[in-house]
Automatic annotation (TrEMBL):
<feature type="transmembrane region" description="Helical">
    <location>
        <begin position="121"/>
        <end position="140"/>
    </location>
</feature>
<feature type="transmembrane region" description="Helical">
    <location>
        <begin position="34"/>
        <end position="54"/>
    </location>
</feature>
<keyword id="KW-0812">Transmembrane</keyword>
<feature type="transmembrane region" description="Helical">
    <location>
        <begin position="66"/>
        <end position="88"/>
    </location>
</feature>
<dbReference type="GO" id="GO:0016020">
    <property type="term" value="C:membrane"/>
</dbReference>
<feature type="domain" description="Sugar phosphate transporter">
    <location>
        <begin position="8"/>
        <end position="204"/>
    </location>
</feature>
<dbReference type="InterPro" id="IPR050186">
    <property type="entry name" value="TPT_transporter"/>
</dbReference>
<keyword id="KW-0472">Membrane</keyword>
<protein>
    <recommendedName>
        <fullName>Sugar phosphate transporter domain-containing protein</fullName>
    </recommendedName>
</protein>
<feature type="transmembrane region" description="Helical">
    <location>
        <begin position="146"/>
        <end position="168"/>
    </location>
</feature>
<keyword id="KW-1133">Transmembrane helix</keyword>
<feature type="transmembrane region" description="Helical">
    <location>
        <begin position="7"/>
        <end position="28"/>
    </location>
</feature>
<dbReference type="Pfam" id="PF03151">
    <property type="entry name" value="TPT"/>
</dbReference>
<dbReference type="InterPro" id="IPR004853">
    <property type="entry name" value="Sugar_P_trans_dom"/>
</dbReference>
<feature type="transmembrane region" description="Helical">
    <location>
        <begin position="233"/>
        <end position="252"/>
    </location>
</feature>
<feature type="transmembrane region" description="Helical">
    <location>
        <begin position="180"/>
        <end position="199"/>
    </location>
</feature>
Amino acid sequence: MNKKLITAFYLILNIFFSIVIVLLNKWLYVHIGFPNITLSMIHFVITFIGLIICEKFDVFCIKDIAIKEMFFIAMAFCGFVVLTNLSLAHNTVGTYQVAKMLTTPCVIIMQMIVYNKHFSILVKLTLIPIILGVVINFYYDIQFNIIGTVYATMGVLVTSLYQVMVNIKQKEFQMDPMQLLYYQAPLSAVMLFFIVPFLEPIEQTFARSWSLIDIAMVILSGGSLIFHETLAINQVIGITLTLVGIILYAHVKMKDTQMVVSDCEDKERKPLHKV
């Protein structure tokens, strides 16, 4: 089968499951009141089980790394998932999703300040519509609330820090994302396991029983249908601006990467001069 078709299939599959997970989580928060940290812990456990299965089928190989090397990145992983879930619980699905897009400019700013990394002027310009779009969306969100905004902001900051740390660890230990996640997921689950009894008593988690019909409802419905979320025209403009910014950023970054690769190839082709 054509490699491009396989890639396209997996991309579509990834988008589909990403949407389903967001809607499912939102439905659990709105209609069930499922505890956030418990849900995050379950997510980590299921992820680890999935990784074990993938490893058995030789999808990736396990690298031997000291657990202490993964401690801080696992903490950041906990913060990233818990805070973004809290943002989803206290914001509309649209606002939650748009807020996550602030991660891109935040990561760039962190890399510029902390690691003195340089980006082209075009890359910097693409950040303007992203930030402007997010601000417009939040300002005109009819369900705007301070708590939701605080969680969204904290989620963006911790997610950005996590992404920077992932990039560092991958380079440091020559690990791919699955190899890194193999250590992160169980360690993060254990961390949350000790927090849950204090912040989310067990009777709160199992206060009601659920049916398969409940879960099916989420998969078959969208955010607007389930949660009766309406978008103001200004929010639509904000979301559109953000998406345009993200697309432009991806395009410019791809062009920059191609130019760097092309320059490296040209240098390699140049013959060495005899002394």
